[in-house]
Amino acid sequence: MSKVEYRTVIKFLSKEGLAPAAIKQRLDGVYGEASPSYSTVKEWAKQFHLRRKSVEDEPREGRPVEMVTEENIRCIEEELLSDRRLTLKEISVRLDIPKTTIIQIIHEHLHMKKVSARWVPRLLSSIQKEHRLTCCQKILELCRGNQKQVLESIITGDETMVLYYDPLSKRESMEWRKPGEAPPRKAKVTLSAKKIMATIFWDCRGILLIDFKERNTTVNGAYYASLLLKLRDAIKEKRRGMLSHGVRLLHDNAPVHTAVVAKAAVKECGFKEIDHPPYSPDLAPSDYYLFSKLKKDLRGKKFHDDEEVKTAVMEHFADKEQEYFLKGIELLVHRCEKCVEIKGDYIEK
User: Fold this and answer.
1) Which CATH number fits domain 126-179+188-341: 3.40.640.10, 3.90.1150.10, 3.30.420.10, 3.50.50.60?
2) Of 197, 200, 164, which Cα lies nearest the Cα of 287?
3) Full-model pTM
4) Are 196 and 295 in contact (CB under 8 A)?
5) Span 230-239, pLDDT tens digits
6) What is the crossing angle of helices 126-143 and 322-341, to 10°?
7) How far is CA 41 from CA 16, 27, 34, 238, in A?
């Protein structure tokens, strides 16, 4: 039936004195799911009660019903490209087009969506992208033909801050609930001010050295140089024969790593440095793999002193198999390939 025919029935039953609920029940009994909604029945019963006679729509003035035109599509696209942060309301006011029509054009015709900005360590210049590209190409060239041997020779490390308390994110706090159950509630909390710095060196077989900085000590080139000497001793103890085969050290360009005394320690230890581009945590295995998993495991746990933090960090790595660490090093090859593919830009995943 057409909407005019439904309205005729509603008008007839209203004249008989039936209430909207009773009219709706009669319509459902005859037409089933095809019958109009209760709100429609109620509105038209009200109109007929106010002595409306016509069952036809009132003639409208103003805009035509069809607003999705080539001209409107072009105008909306121009507005969006001129200012990508415009709201739907602002576009509607500027172009005098209904908001619903704008939504339809944006999604169905322009195939656009509004996305938030992705945070990156730095807005890279063309020179910095070129440097990243070159570094990745060198690593891939080094791995070509003997990837397993090269990956086994890499030792990587970095510093990270471990908080006494790092609260769970909103997503991490999600819980399963049955229908009708109240959702979980979570008070807003802040990051702990107390923390301890850990320097971790590792390779494809596991952890080589974890050093926790003593309080009131300065992190400088001399401090890092002393860690490199400790690292050499750890390699002698845990990776027999590795020093004679050659160690490739992969660390970032932090000032303590590039200090003269630190460079001298690298040379004294007999390590070969892998060139790492600045502002590139997405190409540092500790940043994109090891530290993120460590902090995810510790998030939501509360520690009361340095010793509890140290114990938690050591326990996190204690049960990890060799495959866990191998995966983090192998991902470096995939990330270098991706970086080359996107011409030196940051890698999203």
Assistant:
1) 3.30.420.10
2) 200
3) 0.70
4) no
5) 999 999 999 9
6) 130
7) 15, 9, 13, 82
